[in-house]
Amino acid sequence: MARLTALLPLAAALLAAPLAAAAAPHRQGATTLTLSVTGSARHLPDAMAATIEIAGEAPDAAAAQDRLNRAMAAALHAADGVAGVRATTGSYFVTPTDAKRTAWIARQELSLSCDAAPGAPAAAGLRGLIGQLQHAGARLQSLDGRLSAATAAATRERAIGDAVRRLRAEAQAVARSLGETVGTIRTVQVDGPPVRPVFGGLMVAGRAASPVARPAAIEERVSLSATIELVPAAK
């Protein structure tokens, strides 16, 4: 969990506490309130990523690897010919498929991505490439929509703002119930990964049309914890 000291001024402002109060000494006997809330914000994916498994089978390990290597080289060549598509290779495995070790399979992952929403025309090249590779025998392991770095940062900032507003409301409600008011914010901690939509039912190989992608919005969730000192209400 990352401590974001930069959030202290923002949280203090939203909680209606003077910024200078953050440096105020702790009052003896003061009520200390610890709260945890979750804020969220949603945005439709504006990027796309896929993981594909390329495989080669043969009676011996060397031949299986040779078939895999040739198939992967062809897949990379095809990917390099599609504008806007990035292709990188991943894990490589070679294993026998029977107890007598008379049949072998070699597998390697191919990661594909582009900076376009999955259903957008700009992503048509990647979707077409996936269909082409499936037709050649590749297995689609995952296909998901993502947020670009800039969009993810903006969405997370909105989620943090939502969390701070929730924190403010809860802190004020607790303070009122105790006959006190919100005072100094002593600590603030924030954490939370995005929740990405993943398209299921796409792990197929063989003859296949290009996959259809219509993802839901991605939700950024931020968990915010704060320690707040309360101040007796003025009489």
TrEMBL record:
InterPro entries the UniProt entry points to: 26kDa_periplasmic_antigen, SIMPL/DUF541
Residues passing through the membrane, by range: none
Biological process according to GO: DNA damage response
Signal peptide, first to last residue: 1-23
One Pfam family per UniProt: SIMPL
Keywords: Signal
The protein, known as: DUF541 domain-containing protein
Organism classification: Bacteria, Pseudomonadati, Pseudomonadota, Alphaproteobacteria, Acetobacterales
